[in-house]
Amino acid sequence: MxxxxxxxxxxxxxxxxxxxxxxxxxxxxxxGLLTNGPVTIxxxxxxxxxxxxxxxxxxxxxxxxxxxSDHQLxxxxxxxxxxxxxxxxxxxxxxxxxxxxxxxxxTGQARVSLPGGCAWGPRPVDLHIExxxxxxxxxxxxxxxxxxxxxxxxxxxxxxxxxxxxxxxTINVLLGAVLARGxxxxxxxxxxxxxxxxxxxxxxxxxKIDGIGSxxxxxxxxxxLNPVSYTNCxxxxxxxxFMIAAxxxxxxxxxxxxxxxNPEHLGVSFMESFDRTGAGVEIDGxxxxxxxxxxxxxxxxxxxxxxxxxxxxxxxxxxxxxxxHGNSKVLESIYPDRFKHIPELHRMGVNAIVVGDEVVIExxxxxxxxxxxxxxxxxxxxLVLAGMIAEGETQILRxxxxxxxxxxxxxxxxxxxxxxxxxxxDEWADPN
Length: 432
Fold this sequence. Notes:
Layout: E1 2-7, E2 15-17, H1 22-31, E3 38-42, H2 48-59, E4 63-67, E5 72-76, E6 84-85, H3 87-90, H4 98-107, E7 109-113, H5 126-134, E8 137-142, E9 145-150, E10 159-161, H6 167-177, E11 183-187, H7 193-204, E12 208-210, E13 216-220, E14 229-231, H8 236-249, E15 256-259, H9 268-276, E16 280-284, E17 287-291, E18 301-302, H10 314-323, E19 326-331, H11 342-347, E20 351-355, E21 358-363, E22 371-373, H12 377-389, E23 393-397, H13 400-403, H14 409-415, E24 419-424
Parallel strand pairs: 2-15, 3-14, 6-7, 10-11, 18-19, 22-23
Antiparallel strand pairs: 1-23, 1-24, 3-5, 4-5, 7-9, 8-9, 11-13, 12-13, 15-17, 16-17, 19-21, 20-21
Helix pairs in contact: 1-2, 1-7, 4-6, 5-6, 6-7, 8-10, 8-12, 10-12
């Protein structure tokens, strides 16, 4: 097993480069199943979740060529003959559930295991199932699998309202709707960049979608879709993470340049909150230059659906608040149980108290390096950020969580001046 060892006190300097979005790449890969012929997707991050989903796709008989290390994959579903996603693979990541909508849309049937994924918070798939039922799917549960079929081999289309709005459910239903016989109307649809990028790729393939970027999508089902080449967007959560890293550990007056960025994908709430911390931000095309202030100001935030403050950045924001002087809080309105990083930050001296759906932070206190445990993807990177500004050495254990969503982050940070390295260790070895 691997751990990251961070020695705090070294400033972040120079340049950082944002990888392609993981959360967008996965549904784009599922879209590749909706047509015969090769679909090329570029700017794919080299992550474990990508390689896992590749295996899920290959189970169906589709071929996947190319390598994430080359940041490009070619998916050819011409020989798709097994509309199934087995438990052994789906349990590793929740996004595999996109196979339900993709296989139903393409073949009119699917057998997909109920998903696993992150260890925090309930994220039920009821919205996905009910949405696809509204399009004409007959769905039953069988020994941990969702078994679905469309009468006559093709979904009919229909009206779906998502309560609450959900990125995953919107995309899953969209995957089924684009090849349905008739029209589908998706109300209270998610408007996150992940959804918009999927719509744009589908539209490029010939799908008839109106209302892209709005809360109501009108989809006129097509008989077939065409193979295309498509470029994935930058990862907005990695961008936000790097902006926070620059604000807390950069040298005041010396900007850190973050390349291949799309700040619009972060949403208005994050950008306004970040500006209020006192950190300087200069946007030059796809490059953002962040300058650390002499003293960070604490800015309380409330997570919300896009364009609200991203829940995937609240753990990182907590570390920023720990560095800032003064009291502040984070209200988590999306996943109330998403504070498992707080006990680990306590071990480093961060004074933070969880009260219901809020965490209250007394910033400006001494942060000390120690051994801490990763519990999920975003918690992992928050511990890396804390280690960067801590006194002494921090060891972040179980970084396989981190590897699911950040591409070689230790190499990127090391190239920008941070003392960080990856080390293999035996978690069950007796201490000396």
